[in-house]
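Q: Predict the bound structure with flavin mononucleotide.
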Amino acid sequence: MNQVIDVLLKRRSVRAYEEKEISADIREEILKATLRAPTAGNMMLYSIVDVTDQKIKDRLAITCDDQPFIARAPMVWLFVADYQRWFDYFLASGVEEVCQQKQVPIRKPEEGDLFLACCDALIAAQNAVIAAESFGVGSCYIGDIMEQYEIHKELFDLPRYTFPICLLVFGYPTPEQLHRPYTKRFDKKFILFENQYHRLDPQELKEMFAEHESQMAKGQGREDIANFGQAMYFRKFDAEFSVEMSRSVRLILREWIS
Ligand SMILES: Cc1cc2nc3c(=O)[nH]c(=O)nc-3n(C[C@H](O)[C@H](O)[C@H](O)COP(=O)(O)O)c2cc1C
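A: Predicted complex:
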């Protein structure tokens, strides 16, 4: 097996870290690999905020759905989907005046631009994850950065055409983290389709979740919840964090689109 595949297959999320700094050289290599990620139109529609201030890490550990390990990570990077830089550049380049001359309204960043910038930011983030992993540095995504928009906007001084799409925390894994069993993935037949999307029928859904269902039956179940689907609905989908995330994202969308 080649080394890249090896790194990809052995990666897992790391949430507990050794008290060991990540050297400046390794940080630089991770950054170099991050910035080489594919990017729409070669525009680099993202920014990275290297969070070095312990007070900000402490705050994020609370605002990102109370996840204390964020504060203990030696390296914390915020990935921001960013159209502000390009739109500012368009304005600085006299686009407004040209539009006036042509008597056409100036177009501002819209939904498609936001999604493209999110793609860019996330693809760069994943390069960072894999580059770090190749140095033995573990990482974990923090999706909860999309919550509490008002707080994060102020904390990072985010302008209108930006979107804090993910936070990555990095650190050397503790021995326990290295020996944690791998999380399982669903069988590829439920994920990979040929030529057309295939909507799973009830029988296929039963098959897809059979292992999870049987694990729950073996003692993970709760009395008020009958099956894995119900458990996940309340734990992930109709959870407080999830409702807050949607509220927060709606706010950001309004900023971009109004
Ligand atoms: C978009 C995204 C958001 C995530 N947010 C969190 C998070 O807030 N907290 C956390 O502990 N893990 C988070 N994770 C990590 C997942 O829980 C983890 O990838 C998943 O359970 C599979 O485990 P593995 O990465 O060890 O294979 C996130 C992962 C992704 C891709």
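A: DSSP finds 13 helices and four strands in the chain.
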